[in-house]
Design a protein that fits this description.
This protein is about 20% helix and about 40% strand. The protein is of the alpha+beta class. The longest helix is centred in the last third of the chain and has 15 residues.
Length: about 260
């Protein structure tokens, strides 16, 4: 049996930008050990596995080393694949059943808009070794549902970080978000995301981190709708709208290749 697989660049409108994700279409649920091995084989920050469930889809995400509970860019890539391949009409939303509950994605003009749970950030004390490993002096340290979130004093500080990933990998957390106000008028804030403990030193564009970044910047900037930039080497633009306990994330995606697993 051959299994269809795509590689999609998410949160970008051009090839080789944004965050690449593999999307694997299954006829029925697969052994998680096999899914993890394929995630390691693809060696991308996430490999998504789609399984049809009547008119909805089961969706799971694996990094090269572990399964994660929430992933934005691979969800965007999965919705893109469903519409581009004709498996789902563009006038119908993609409904995904995941470890983080039901997620919905809809076509919104040229963008894909995803409805995700928001994540509050509570003030916290940095765990031993975090600040030294980052080489940063944050203005704020907080803890989200999955990650630590640090606000730095400037966009230049965010861009110049050169973390010690070996030391960061020892921390008991999925990842570390660093953020600041943007120095580019096209964007409201910028961020970077480091997750060596989850098998990804720096994630190019992290949708799930923006579930916390939107609510974090809402009171600080006095608005509910944002255009954000994740300042990795690849870079990516994320639209963020805060709506109560939900966050709408929007972006574009392009297919790099499609094929079959032998």
């Amino acid at each position: 049996m051959q299994i269809p697989i795509w590689q999609v660049d998410a949160f970008t409108d051009s090839l080789f930008g944004g965050n690449p994700a593999a999307v694997c279409l299954l006829e029925q649920p697969a052994d998680p050990k096999w899914m993890q091995l394929l995630g390691r084989e693809m060696n991308l920050s996430e490999t998504a596995f789609l399984t049809p469930q009547d008119e909805e889809w089961g969706l799971r995400w694996f990094t090269p080393s572990t399964e994660v509970k929430l992933c934005g860019h691979a969800t965007l890539a999965s919705a893109h694949v469903l519409w581009e391949s004709g498996l789902l009409p563009r006038n119908r939303p993609a409904i995904f059943n995941t470890l983080s509950g039901v997620l919905r994605a809809s076509c919104a003009g040229e963008c894909i808009e995803m409805d995700f749970p928001s994540s509050k950030t509570e003030g916290a004390t940095a765990p031993d070794g975090l600040l030294a490993a980052l080489g940063a002096k944050p203005q704020f340290i907080g803890k989200t549902t999955f990650d630590y979130l640090l606000e730095l004093g400037s966009a230049a500080e965010v861009r110049s970080l050169n973390p010690d990933f070996r030391r960061l990998a020892q921390l008991p957390v999925r990842g570390i978000i660093v953020t600041s106000r943007s120095d580019d008028p096209r964007f409201d804030f910028i961020s970077r995301f480091f997750a060596p403990g989850s098998g990804v030193d720096e994630d190019p564009v992290t949708g799930s981190a923006h579930c916390a970044l939107g609510p974090f910047w809402h009171p600080r900037l006095g608005k509910t709708a944002f255009t954000a930039w994740q300042a990795s080497a690849r870079g990516g633009r994320v639209g963020v709208v805060v709506r109560g306990d939900r966050v709408l994330l929007s972006g574009t995606a392009v297919t790099v290749f499609r094929g079959q697993l032998a």
